[in-house]
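Minutes, project check-in
Item: structure for the 469-residue chain
Input as provided by the requester:
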Amino acid sequence: MRRPILDAAARPVSGASIALLRIAFGVFMVIDVGLYLPQLVTSYYVEPSFNFAYDPWGLVRPLPGEYTMHLVYVVKGIAGVLIALGLWYRWAAATLFALTTYVFLLDSSFFQNHEYLISMLSLWLIVLPTHRMWSLDARRRPHLASTTQPAWILWFLRFQLGVPYVYGGIAKLNADWFAGEPIRMWLAARTDVQVIGRWFTNEPVVWFAAYGSLLLDLTVVGFLLHRRTRVPAFVIAVTFHLLNARLFGLFVFPWLMIVATTIFFDPDWPLRVRDRWRARGRGGAAPVDPASAPRREGPVTAPATFDGTRPAPHGRRLSPAVGAILAVWILVQLLVPLRHLAIPGDANWTEEGHRFAWHMMLRTKSGTVTFTVDDGRDLWVEDPLDHLSEAQFRRLPGHPERLARFAHHLSDLYGGAEVRADTSVALNGRTPVPIVDPDLDLSTVQVPWWGHAEWILPNPEPLRPDRSP
């Protein structure tokens, strides 16, 4: 049993779709850098005097100086260019991983699922030889060039890119989503969208959006892998991502996922498209390509480098050590998104187990917070905007962990003063309630790395009657 699995994992398949994914990934990293430079970098990492680090000690800090963080993003952009070109590929991937992960860990206020995905993909780009085809490295060093990749690389990438879809659907299996929230609120706030916006307050549209997106997330990977349903599934997925981009922005995430979703196609699909395009330009039929054989994932012979050389197919047997590492990684990817099920309370309210779990677009919180500082001599209200950016402050009232970390910061700043927070938070349109006890000295509480913080107040408010199914 073990040897057939290893043989199947090592079977050569076309490297075209993997190479295209590498190129697209690099291009989108450059675009992502352009979206952050210069204003977001300044407001996120230069102007605030306090950052909500993931670790309780705040060891990961923005670099000092007015333009050093901008330089970090510039280097990230250069790494993206090199990855797309396949030039000094592994060094570029390692640089992108280090800098992307560093920026990601600076402030939990700006957690984005796509940044988490980018960090993981850039890590695996260091390991996976996606530069064997259509790369300058393959042109400079012909012994690297190959038209094929071992099948396990293709299936591993499919797994990693399928996780956000499937777990995004699993996360939607909750009472609020079944009741149409928060998507009802989001659509109602976007009725100014041309052509389709006027329909956003119609209940059938709300239910179609809620349950349609749920079904898409849960089933699209299976439909993409099945040849007969692949094209309609891809069209629906593209429509879904384009709507997300138009309605919610979401930076490069929708566009990256549109291209990344093609990894579920037959691995030689870019070669087929290329050959058909060339044949159309010549006014003739597409040339017969070995990739057109019924065994779609078998070896192909096609230009692997920019100079048109045709190196021999390349296969790589999956060693037991690499297989064990992949198994552990896959197990972590399967279990971590479910950890909130072992923690008491609603993760959308407590935020415990919310991150790294593909909980995308599940809740909207509005609220207020007033911090009172008591140093034993004086009592005063501290304005968080004296320490935080507006973007950080908007994400503060409804997040218990950040409330506690900011209270610890104020206490340290004022010589061990007591700090209390008077909060009023509404989840998915509910009636606002306190999320922490206003009489509790938040500077004394501990933020558990795992489990439930008992100092977080429960949310007793149900959805309003007009929000119920």
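Outcome recorded: The beta strands are 12-14, 148-150, 365-374, 379-382, 418-427.
No further action items on this chain.
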